[in-house]
Amino acid sequence: MNKDEIIKVFRNIPVLETEHLILRRMQKSDADDMYDYAKRHDTTRYLLWNPHPDRKFTYQYLVYLNHQYKVGEFHDWAVIERESDRMIGTCGFTRFDYGNDGAEIGYVLNPDFWGRGYATEAVRRVIRFGFDYLGLHRLEAKYMEGNNASRRVMEKCGMTFEGVRRDSIFVKGGFVSVGVCSILRTEYNQNRIGL
Length: 195
Prior knowledge:
Blueprint: H1 3-11, E1 16-17, E2 21-24, H2 31-38, H3 41-44, H4 55-70, E3 76-81, E4 86-97, E5 102-109, H5 118-133, E6 138-144, H6 148-156, E7 160-171, E8 174-184, H7 185-191
Parallel strand pairs: 5-6
Antiparallel strand pairs: 1-2, 2-3, 3-4, 4-5, 6-8, 7-8
């Protein structure tokens, strides 16, 4: 898909479902749930952003994201746990490589829900959407060195570890190395890895 087609899809972001999760558009009413994890240092330790300072900041961020949805420039879903109906994180596309039919997947999960397989479940569903609906050729995900749990999620989703880009980004006062994993549509189609 080209950029105009991607924008059209994400202006009216579709709801995606899994056994335990619903992936839907983020809403202003998600502010309490998002702030619950976005304020935590253990959530943001391996992320590019710092903890949210207060609920008002989170609410204003969601207001901004809803504008981005309207223009088709935001490609992330709220991850909702079916059982509790709580927003427990986000998962989606952080970047598209339009010329090469590729995209990068990113995700974050409330630490209270770590260890339940939810990140893997959400990423698998987004991979499926990327290949089956958007017709992409390659999907990749990145993690900061030391975040072995995130790398395990990628590998459980059928991604192959490609290597580490040494000191490739400057974040939170220092350089960090970033690992890259990827999956190609041909690999996805061969394995269908429970996606």
